[in-house]
Design a protein that fits this description.
The chain has 140 residues and is of the alpha+beta class. It is built from 6 helices and 4 strands. Strands 1-2-3-4 form a 4-stranded antiparallel beta sheet. Strand 2 and strand 3 form a beta hairpin. It is globular and about 40 Å long. It starts with a strand and ends with a strand.
Length: 140
């Protein structure tokens, strides 16, 4: 199968700026800690200033297609990207602790391959504080 993830944020100007940067900045630079870290340090005060006036909103969409061709799309909107990422990491850890995963490195797609654990973790992830909407739909 295949998967694709995309994100967007408000205000929309940040999406326009990121799209433009992706179009002109060489791909190898994005994996450079020096470039990415410098960009983050440069943009953080600009983002914080903008967010203080207009607020923050984030959305993420993940499309997944199985080897058999079945496809689903999941979309979550949240009022804070930083809190959503942190809370999602915490929810995965809490689920592992609550349900006794064996020690070691685990891939989410292996841990949640069965329907019941997948429903359980999606419920946790979609109900984190600040989530404004969540949905999963089959794509035709």
């Amino acid at each position: 199968g295949t998967s694709r993830a995309g994100m967007g944020t408000a205000p929309a100007i940040w999406n326009v700026v990121l799209r433009a940067m992706v179009a002109v900045v060489p791909r190898s630079w994005w994996s450079s800690e020096r470039f990415s870290g410098g960009l983050a340090r440069f943009s953080e005060p600009l983002v914080a200033l903008t967010d203080s006036f207009v607020g923050e909103r984030h959305a993420m969409r993940v499309d997944v297609t199985s080897a058999a061709g079945d496809a689903v799309a999941a979309i979550q909107t949240h009022d804070s990207f930083r809190r959503c990422v942190g809370q999602s990491c915490a929810e995965f850890c809490l689920d592992l602790l609550d349900h006794g995963a064996a020690p070691g490195v685990r891939l989410p797609e292996a841990l949640y391959a069965a329907p019941e654990p997948r429903r359980r973790v999606l419920k946790r992830l979609s109900s984190t504080s600040g989530t404004t909407s969540f949905g999963v739909d089959r794509v035709s």
